[in-house]
């Protein structure tokens, strides 16, 4: 009788251990997931081939957008910047932390909670995607930050009489371009900057002036002009309205200016 009791107790204990082991294994599987990240890693080789679907389309223009830290990034734009002393990993981590703080700030604002301000520009340094645009006749190429949150496309211009930031490559000289013309200060053209500017107006020389202030406390000031813009081979815009900045201060890195892709009337 005792043997049967002991056997029954031993069997019950074994069943409990097996059940506990299976349950623990299921729980562990629910709490942990193994992900294969190899397929999500960026390529280390620069590939400049257009997407297959656009190769043979005559109505399509392919514009190369370069990720700041991608394999096609121009090293000249990464040198001698505010964050050049940081390793790539440290800078990416810093930018991710800044983005999280910015999201938390917006969420607190929706809930009516007052928090300390976060200046995203202090962390982000400058834009993460850069394009090369041709301007003028003869064409000169300029590195521009791609910005979908603003409308005005601008580049630093000579004589840069106020103050310009250091950029990679020569500063655009509008009066050396055969296709350049000043944008006269008429109401229809100058008022278009009101969507992107706090201070549109007319100068003493009848030029349409602008002063744009961005969310990271960067600022640029200049006048509107028109010239031929080349965004891709055989894809140009004649009389494209853009900003000729004579003063720019902020987090632009070594780029020449900004390509505005917002929804305003002056946007590209």
Automatic annotation (TrEMBL):
<feature type="signal peptide">
    <location>
        <begin position="1"/>
        <end position="24"/>
    </location>
</feature>
<dbReference type="InterPro" id="IPR021109">
    <property type="entry name" value="Peptidase_aspartic_dom_sf"/>
</dbReference>
<keyword id="KW-0732">Signal</keyword>
<protein>
    <submittedName>
        <fullName>Eukaryotic aspartyl protease family protein</fullName>
    </submittedName>
</protein>
<dbReference type="Pfam" id="PF14543">
    <property type="entry name" value="TAXi_N"/>
</dbReference>
<keyword id="KW-0378">Hydrolase</keyword>
<feature type="domain" description="Peptidase A1">
    <location>
        <begin position="129"/>
        <end position="268"/>
    </location>
</feature>
<dbReference type="InterPro" id="IPR033121">
    <property type="entry name" value="PEPTIDASE_A1"/>
</dbReference>
<dbReference type="GO" id="GO:0004190">
    <property type="term" value="F:aspartic-type endopeptidase activity"/>
</dbReference>
<keyword id="KW-0645">Protease</keyword>
<dbReference type="GO" id="GO:0006508">
    <property type="term" value="P:proteolysis"/>
</dbReference>
<dbReference type="InterPro" id="IPR001461">
    <property type="entry name" value="Aspartic_peptidase_A1"/>
</dbReference>
<dbReference type="InterPro" id="IPR032861">
    <property type="entry name" value="TAXi_N"/>
</dbReference>
<comment type="similarity">
    <text>Belongs to the peptidase A1 family.</text>
</comment>
């Amino acid at each position: 009788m005792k043997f049967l009791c002991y056997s029954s107790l031993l069997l019950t204990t074994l069943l409990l251990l097996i059940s506990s082991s299976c349950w623990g294994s299921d729980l562990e599987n629910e709490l942990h997931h193994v992900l294969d990240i190899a397929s999500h890693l960026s390529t280390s080789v620069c590939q400049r081939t257009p997407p297959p679907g656009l190769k043979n389309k005559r109505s399509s223009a392919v514009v190369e957008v370069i990720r700041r830290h991608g394999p096609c990034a121009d090293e000249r734009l990464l040198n001698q910047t505010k964050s050049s002393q940081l390793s790539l990993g440290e800078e990416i981590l810093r930018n991710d932390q800044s983005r999280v703080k910015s999201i938390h700030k917006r969420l607190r604002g929706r809930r009516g909670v007052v928090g300390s301000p976060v200046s995203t520009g202090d962390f982000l340094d400058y834009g993460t995607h850069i394009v090369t645009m041709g301007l003028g006749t003869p064409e000169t190429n300029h590195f521009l930050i791609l910005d979908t949150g603003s409308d005005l496309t601008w580049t630093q211009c000579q004589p840069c009489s106020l103050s310009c930031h250091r950029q990679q490559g020569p500063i655009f000289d509008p009066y050396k371009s055969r296709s350049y013309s000043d944008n006269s200060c008429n109401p229809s053209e100058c008022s278009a900057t009101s969507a992107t500017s706090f201070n549109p107006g007319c100068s003493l020389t009848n030029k349409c002036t602008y002063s744009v202030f961005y969310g990271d406390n960067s600022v640029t000031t200049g006048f509107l002009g028109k010239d031929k813009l080349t965004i891709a081979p055989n894809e140009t815009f004649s009389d494209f309205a853009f900003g000729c900045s004579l003063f720019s201060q902020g987090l632009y890195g070594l780029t020449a200016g900004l390509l505005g892709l917002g929804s305003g009337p002056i946007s590209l």
